[in-house]
Design brief:
The protein is mainly alpha-helical. It is built from 30 helices and no strands. Helix 6 packs antiparallel against helix 7. The N terminus and C terminus are likely disordered.
Length: about 600
């Protein structure tokens, strides 16, 4: 024995002999002897733990070569294990044997063997063990009732101790030692998915010590996050927020996991997207500014790496919508100012974008749109190139709240008066954010030229596909540009005679898979927005649903007509997209419509 464990030397041999005699505690005599010696044996186990916790697993095996035998004999003695105090001390001792980064097959086997004993202690012990029938019957319990109670009591005891430690703060005499908390988190790793361990996992996640470094094992966070993402465990929002705040890799993995489910699945409806978004708990957790900034930044990278892919933009807008809704439900005492989430944007612009269009009467929606356009124009065009409030940052802020661009298109097309310049600028900017002032002015002129003929045809009792395509600036057999296509589809949905010609027009403008997918995205997003705004439009809604169902049922076009694979464009550093001189190549807000 080493010098620091000389005091355990004689006791160690004594208890090894005792454990061999006790065996499985199958006789009344051995059970009585265990009861007589149990307090001293538990104290010996505590001394063992105090010694082991100061060593790494390799040193433990060198100094205590038979420690595995001693702990295994104890674990397989049901009469000793019947006491929750014995279970707790054993789990701590076994946790000390696990090597964090095994360097050999022997260390890996020891880890596996140790986890097997831990599983036996905290899981298998609930089943009927005949050797302790006499003990349980003397207490008036059947084994099937007794064993789950043991495990539950042990977990509740640990949970109470953790919470008491948290409440006691700097009262060190009543706090659980950090090394015990750390050891406990390591012991729990293979047992996280057991239902009875839910309260302990939650208590560990919400426990905050006063140490300068993280107390819990990183592998514990990884295991909990993995189990949560795969729906193997249920956690309350408070525990999930603590998990993601304390372990950034878990938050990043949760966001990427959601991206994989949303972005890389073909033709997912926005209703399904919203369901998956809420199920992930990311919008609710993002009410904490630190989590919001990380998720928001990952959306930014995803937009840049996919050249503004429609799927990414749609997911970003649904996330923002769910986030704003969750923010409105937060306790007023816990709310953060909006500038905490959008530190580089003018607060008045953020407030205007966050407001719900449903609260604005139909006839007055020009006013907030004009105000948003003016503030956005000032933020985008009056800033020096490369500044924090440059064109890309302004567009990225506006892109989060995509419903305003759709509303601007509807208002520009359907209002009795000519659309004001502010609405034309808003549409041009939303579809061509990288343009300078002169190219954008040209886009506005072209947009006005398209709106005029469409507005004149809007009330026509009869329509022909040729007239509609000519008004939108499209040639039969060709595909409309993103902005003209947006206006054309809006026209078809709202024109009283649009139903008669809608299918023929779409036959011209949605010939390729890329154009068909863009049209599907627009129709799906329009229906989703109408549902959220409770827009009463029975005829347009019915037509949009019919067209959407027909397009989704179409066979896939030939391979040479398909859009490029997602993510095929090279990633660009964020610094290259903050000015008009260095915009993100190919990133166009209109690509998603």
């Amino acid at each position: 024995m080493a010098q620091d464990s000389v005091g355990l030397s004689s006791g160690y041999q004594f208890w090894m002999r005792k454990l061999s005699v006790w065996g499985q505690a199958s006789t009344l005599e051995t059970q009585q002897d265990i009861c007589h010696h149990l307090p001293q044996f538990q104290e010996f186990l505590r001394q063992i733990y105090e010694t082991l916790k100061e060593m790494d697993s390799r040193t433990i095996i060198e100094r205590f070569p038979t420690i595995g035998q001693l702990l295994a004999k104890t674990c397989w003695n049901p009469f000793i294990l019947a006491y929750d105090e014995s279970q707790k001390i054993l789990t701590w001792c076994l946790g000390c044997l696990i090597t964090k980064e095994p360097q050999s097959s022997g260390e890996s086997k020891l880890n596996s063997w140790t986890r097997g004993l831990l599983s036996h202690i905290l899981a298998a012990f609930r089943f009927d063990i005949k050797e302790v029938d006499l003990f349980t019957q003397s207490l008036g319990y059947a084994p099937a009732d007794y064993y789950p109670g043991l495990l539950k009591n042990m977990v509740l005891s640990l949970v109470s101790e953790l919470r008491e430690s948290h409440l006691n703060g700097f009262n060190t005499q009543r706090r659980m030692a950090p090394e015990r908390v750390r050891s406990l988190s390591r012991v729990c790793i293979p047992l996280i998915t057991l239902p009875d361990f839910g309260p302990l996992v939650e208590a560990l996640l919400t426990y905050h010590g006063h140490e300068p470094q993280e107390t819990l094992w990183p592998e514990f966070f990884d295991a909990v996050n993995e189990a949560f993402l795969l729906k193997k465990i249920l956690l309350p929002k408070s525990a999930v927020v603590c998990l993601w705040l304390r372990h950034l890799p878990s938050l990043e993995k949760a966001t990427l996991h959601l991206f994989e489910k949303l972005i890389f699945s073909e033709r997912t409806s926005l209703t399904r997207t919203e369901f998956l978004m809420r199920q992930s708990l990311l919008p609710e957790a993002a009410c904490h500014p630190a989590i919001f900034r990380i998720v928001d930044e990952m959306f930014r990278y995803a937009l840049l790496e996919t050249d503004g892919a429609p799927e990414v933009l749609a997911a970003l807008q649904v996330f923002t919508c769910c986030f704003v809704e969750a923010l409105g439900k937060e306790d007023n005492q816990l709310k953060f100012a909006l500038r905490t989430y959008f530190p580089y944007a003018p607060p008045s612009l953020v407030m205007a974008l966050v407001q719900h269009p449903e609260d604005i009467p139909q006839g007055l929606r020009h006013q907030p749109l004009r105000r948003i356009s003016e503030m956005l124009r000032e933020a985008a065009e009056d800033q020096a190139p490369g500044s924090s409030g440059g064109p890309f940052e302004s567009w990225f802020l506006f892109a989060r709240f995509g419903g305003w661009a759709d509303m601007a298109a509807e208002q520009s097309l359907m209002s009795a008066a000519e659309p004001p310049e502010a609405l034309l600028w808003l549409l041009a900017f939303s579809y061509s954010p990288r343009d300078g002032s002169q190219p954008r002015a040209q886009t506005m002129a072209e947009l006005k030229a398209v709106l005029g003929p469409l507005r004149r045809l809007l009330r026509s009792p009869t329509l022909s596909a040729r007239d509609v395509l000519a008004a939108a600036g499209a040639r039969p057999g060709g595909a409309c540009g993103p902005l003209a296509g947006h206006l054309l589809l809006t026209f078809l949905l709202w024109a009283p005679a649009g139903r008669a010609t809608a299918r023929e027009v779409l036959g011209h403008v949605a010939q390729t898979e890329a154009a068909a997918l863009d049209t599907i995205g627009f129709l799906d997003q329009t229906l989703y927005r109408w549902d959220r705004l409770r827009t009463e439009a029975p005829a347009p809604r019915r037509l949009a649903r019919e067209l959407l169902a027909e397009l989704r049922a179409r066979p896939v076009p030939a391979a040479d007509q398909r859009r490029p694979p997602r993510g095929s464009h090279p990633a660009r550093p964020l610094g290259e997209c903050c000015s008009e001189e260095t915009p993100p190549p190919g990133l166009r807000a209109g690509d998603w419509s």
